[in-house]
Specification:
By secondary structure, the chain is an alpha/beta fold. The chain has 13 helices and 11 strands. Helix 2 packs across helix 8 and helix 7 packs antiparallel against helix 11.
Amino acid sequence: MTDANALLQLVPKAEGKQSMKDFKSDQEVRWCPGCGDYAVLAAVQGFMPQLGLARENIVFVSGIGCSSRFPYYMNTYGMHSIHGRAPAIATGLAASRRDLSVWVVTGDGDALSIGGNHLIHALRRNVNLKILLFNNRIYGLTKGQYSPTSEVGKITKSTPMGSLDAPFNPVSLALGAEASFVARTVDSDRKHLTEVLRQAADHPGTALVEIYQNCNIFNDGAFEVLKDRQQAEEAVIRLEHGEPIRFGAGGTSRSSEAESGGGCKGVVRDRLTGDLRVVTVTPENEAEILVHDAHSASPTTAFALSRLADPDTLHNTPIGVFRSVDRPVYDTLMADQLDAAIEQNGKGDLGALLAGGDTWTVVG
């Protein structure tokens, strides 16, 4: 199994110190004023110098949508590809060029509708990709139709009487596809976003980061409860590996530093059903508060955490790293097979491979 350090060693390092300015392209950023994409772009451009990688060995691949303009604004290599196919194109790139750091930028519509199969197969294969999934719960580029993450009953141009579709939960979907790294963050929380990006970059294999992003034109305020400081205290569950899962008034990840009661909430496992539920912390139940284990081999508890959020009100929404486990990386396994084949048979002959076995000649 190849660890993160070994994979990063394959990517050439930058010569000299880099800054955020080095990663800004000369293209005019063209999103609607106030769009959450600006915050994500600034965070990524500010974070990239921390990797210390040569810019010519970093690639951003996108599909179609507002978020998919991202490669234009990064002073790296990039490709604005076709609808939903960014994970497939990035898979080929990462597997054939292990000296590259490959990032995918996609949206909830691009990744979860026409691109759904490409996404889940990249996740299950554990290709060495970092996937940033911008989720604004709407189709923004095409002017406000409901998307695969829009809530039931959503009134849009394409659903004037309300959406009938049950929405995808991207984190649940990724965990169900056996993704080895799954996280969620918010566009306006620069510190949290940057820390999640750092952990994703350090992870060997596919890392999926769902980013709640505001579309102030067609779905403004969709995540306001998670951004307003007072409301967020009661609505957001901040996951930290090895810490008790607590939140709310007086809540803290470190139970020893918090007074029980006073509105502090915590997550416990129901003894009868095995499901997770939110309770008010008391001296009697404090010992039952779940301690977050992002490195658990089983995704069961991470999946249960992803189901806590109410899809309508977004109360009890966990953010942070749900899962981060080591699994064999597809690119490495493929390279090992190629090396073994060459060692056993000498230099490969593609022509012989294509013409090998049973062949037919078709005469017109």
